[in-house]
Every structure is written in C-alpha cells, then in structure tokens.
Design a protein that fits this description.
This protein has 143 residues and is mainly β. It has one helix and nine strands. It has an eight-stranded antiparallel beta barrel. A hairpin with a 4-residue loop joins β1 (26-37) and β2 (42-54).
Length: 143
C-alpha cells in the first residue's frame, strides 16, 4: 500500500512539475537560424541572435538586437515535458506580425527537447514550403 501511495505521489508531483513549466514565462535564445524547405531539407543557415519570450498569451521575437521585432498572440498551447526544459514538446499556434502591426501570419511553433538538444521549428500556414529551425542555446524560465 505504501509503495502504491508513493508511486501515485511521484506521478502527481512529476505532472505538476511539467505543468508548472508550461505555465511559466519562457526565455529562449538562438544564435543560428536554419531555413528549411517543405521536406525539412536545409536550404541555408544564418548566424543571427534571436531572443524569444513566451507568456501565457503572447510571444515576442527580437532578431539581431532589434533589427527586426515580431509580436504575436497565442491562440493555443499544448505542452508535454517529461523532464522540464530538457525532454518534451510544446506546440504553440500563434498569429505573428512585425513591429508595424502588418505582415500578419499564422504560425505553428514546435519546441522539442530530445537527447539533450532543444529546437524550435516555425511553420507558417501562409508559406508552407518554408520552415525555420532554431537550435536553442537557452530555454529557461524568465524570472
């Protein structure tokens, strides 16, 4: 009986930890942007600093210290991390526009942690033949 209660407690605690990550403000950084075609083949790579901040309802993307700034509203967020910030997956559906508020596009952002590597894939509904992959240097809670 004690083993069953302990196992149940560990499952609940683990689930709470993973959900806790999903409910936090997140800070992601990448120093490289990989441009992919629809078949996930690498077309080109750009060395550029990208900072992404995600809250419960919004996202902001700052490229090259403000050279380009994008903002968006999160429509949905599905989050499942077995080991917070290391192993798991988040799928965010958002509408992103540039700093002027025009150029609005719908995106699916997939953040995935696997084998110690975390990547973000951005796919636009309006431009399905092009994807962006950002290997993340940092993926952490913003304090």
């Amino acid at each position: 009986m004690k083993a069953t209660l302990f196992t149940l407690f560990m499952l609940v605690a683990g689930s709470a930890m993973c959900f806790a990550q999903c409910d936090k403000k997140l800070h992601l950084t990448s120093s490289k942007t990989e441009h992919l075609d629809s078949g996930n083949n690498l077309e080109r790579t750009a060395d550029e600093q990208t900072v992404i901040e995600i809250t419960k309802s919004n996202i902001s993307v700052v490229i090259e210290d403000g050279k380009q700034t994008l903002t968006g509203v999160i429509k949905s967020n599905v989050c499942d991390w077995k080991t917070p910030f290391k192993e798991g997956k988040t799928v965010i559906n958002t509408t992103i526009s540039n700093e002027n508020g025009d150029g609005e596009k719908d995106y699916t952002l997939t953040i995935e942690g696997k084998d110690g590597k975390i990547t973000l894939i951005a796919e636009s509904v309006q431009d399905p033949d092009k994807k962006l992959r950002l290997p993340l240097d940092k993926f952490e809670e913003k304090k």
